[in-house]
């Protein structure tokens, strides 16, 4: 915690996860000596002053560099799991989805007619209630990206290779849209 404070990073911001990915952290905020030295060296920041100066760049890049965003998102699954677990607790996953998909952090998973993140959180809290495995975690990101490109979900196919939770979420979205009198997936 002190280290992040020293380099001017708030513990509740996505930049913590960017740094954890770059330094190959085994868990949130835990660094190996080799990962710490080699990670900062690769970023050209081998002193605390250089690390502090790099932080604004890391904050900006997570919002503009989609490949970095994907790497950090996927790595977060690995470091968010409790020791010895293969999945992430649902409450923990929701916290991270809020961090990744709210405006100001990473992507803003809202479109003109659909509050996607709010609906997804509502759905998983009401109807899923299980842990989040790696496939669900990774495919949630793919779903986010596709739904932001085309909120009508014209690309959606029930027989597609999506996890069942996302198939069910599409039905949930259709129910919400029908009640609200909005567009429905064709």
From TrEMBL:
Gene Ontology biological-process entries: protein neddylation
PROSITE patterns reported in the protein's UniProt record: DCUN1
Annotated Pfam families: Cullin_binding
Domain of life where this protein originates: Eukaryota
GO MF assignments: cullin family protein binding; ubiquitin conjugating enzyme binding; ubiquitin-like protein binding
GO cellular component annotations of the record: ubiquitin ligase complex
Start and end residues of each DCUN1 domain: 1-174
Primary role: Neddylation of cullins play an essential role in the regulation of SCF-type complexes activity.
PANTHER family in alphabetical order: DCN1-LIKE PROTEIN 3, RP42 RELATED
Name of the protein described by the UniProt record: Defective in cullin neddylation protein
Organism: Trichoglossum hirsutum
């Amino acid at each position: 915690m002190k280290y992040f404070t020293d380099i001017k990073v708030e513990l509740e911001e996505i930049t913590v996860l960017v740094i954890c990915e770059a330094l190959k952290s085994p868990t949130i905020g835990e660094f190996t000596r080799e990962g710490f030295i080699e990670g900062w060296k690769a970023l050209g920041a081998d002193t605390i002053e250089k690390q502090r100066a790099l932080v604004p760049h890391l904050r900006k890049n997570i919002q503009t560099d989609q490949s970095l965003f994907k790497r950090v998102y996927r790595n977060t699954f690995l470091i968010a799991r409790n020791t010895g677990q293969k999945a992430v607790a649902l409450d923990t996953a929701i916290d991270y989805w809020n961090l990744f998909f709210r405006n100001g952090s990473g992507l803003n998973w809202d479109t003109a007619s659909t509050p996607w993140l709010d609906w997804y959180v509502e759905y998983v809290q009401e109807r899923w209630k299980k842990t989040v495995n790696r496939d669900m975690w990774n495919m949630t990101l793919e779903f986010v990206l596709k739904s932001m490109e085309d909120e009508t979900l014209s690309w959606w196919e029930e027989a597609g290779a999506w996890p069942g939770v996302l198939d069910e979420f599409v039905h949930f979205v259709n129910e919400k849209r029908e009640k609200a009198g909005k567009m429905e997936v064709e």
